[in-house]
Amino acid sequence: MTDSSKPSIAIVAHFAYGAMTGGVTGHIGGVERQTSLTARWLTEQGYRVSLITWDEGQQDGDVVDGVRLIKMCRQDAGLPGLRFFHPRWSSLNQALARADADVYYQNCAEYVTGQVAMWCKRHQKRFVYTIANDPDVDPNLPDMHTVRERVLYRYGLRHADDIVVQTQTQRQTLRNGFGLDSTVIPMPCPDLLEAGESLPDAPDPQKQSILWIARLCKQKRPDRYLDLATACPEFQFDLVGPYGDDAYCSEVITRARTIPNVKVWGGIERAKVGELYRDAACLCSTSDFEGFPNTFLEAWSLGIPLVTTFDPDGLVASKNLGRTAADVDTLAGGLREMLGSADAWLKASRNARSYYENNHTVEAVLPRFEAVFFDSPTPTHAAAGKVLHA
Fold first, then answer.
1. Class for domain 8-188+363-374, per CATH?
2. Omega into 379 within 30° of 0, i.e. cis?
3. Domain 209-360 sits in CATH 3.40.50.10090
4. Once rounded to an integer, what is the mean pLDDT over residues 298-322?
5. Which residue spans of the chain are classified as CATH 3.40.50.2000?
6. Residue 304 neighbours by CB under 8 Å, 6+ apart
7. Euclidean distance between CA atoms 150 and 365, whole angstroms
8. Taking 60 as the threshold, does the pLDDT of residue 164 lie above it?
């Protein structure tokens, strides 16, 4: 039940319609799932919550689980070259106004960060931004390829009233590169361990797989995962993730289908995800960089350890949540070491579950976001982003 005495919030998440409504099409990644989780939780606490997304055929103002859906234009609307301004930017401004919220929140580095910050500054609204990925705090902004993107994103960073990061590494990099302070809050993840369900015993590598689950793109390095499968013919490997239409993805899929111990799943419904985790001996990540993958949290909630080339804040190594690696050879060594010892696997499994319970449950995380959203004074934008130095 919405409490009219509480402030309201609008969450800007262009691609979150599918995650919010349970759809299986479109891009539904960790950010979209966390966004919809946050929206529902805030509604349950009595806040009036709006979610601003692309038009995917919904009625403007539809309500899902208490969250009001406000649509912009369709993603493909408008003429190439002009659509950036109209209808994309113009419909975003109209949606922000229709939301009529006290606080506006956006996650992910993009030109939209600057657009939302600009509207909030003009209308004296509070703007909170969350870093989603390590390159987002790199002053060179390596994932942004146009001047327009970089200029608008930097504007958004510097005019956010609060910035949330996922790791201490991101906080320090943002401080060093942009002179901006931030608040470290881990991301929330629903517990996949069902009531009464026990943590797994040591796995049987002959029956259980090495699970890889992500978008099939260069950042995630599925090609490295296939190299690992080739180097470890004694294990089974499950490659899970939606296909892109680029040459890199096509090459990965074509190659994966030629490797006998690799099963290619493609994109799957959320209902199937839990089954795949439970059939896994461990989760494998082969990315060059990340933010804090939602898949890590899902696996840890079930007591499934990692073998990974990416280790946020050194947590996997320091807290024994699995094995870390630098390349295919060390990935293979880590797999064989952990799966070759029931004791080693069980220690990592129990540590993973304990770390999840203490740091990433909805109950542990979302009250901290609530405090950032609503416990600060009305913004003046005079000290936006908490600039530490020029």
1. alpha beta
2. no
3. no
4. 96
5. 8-188+363-374, 209-360
6. 200, 211, 277, 280, 281, 282, 283, 349, 352
7. 30
8. yes
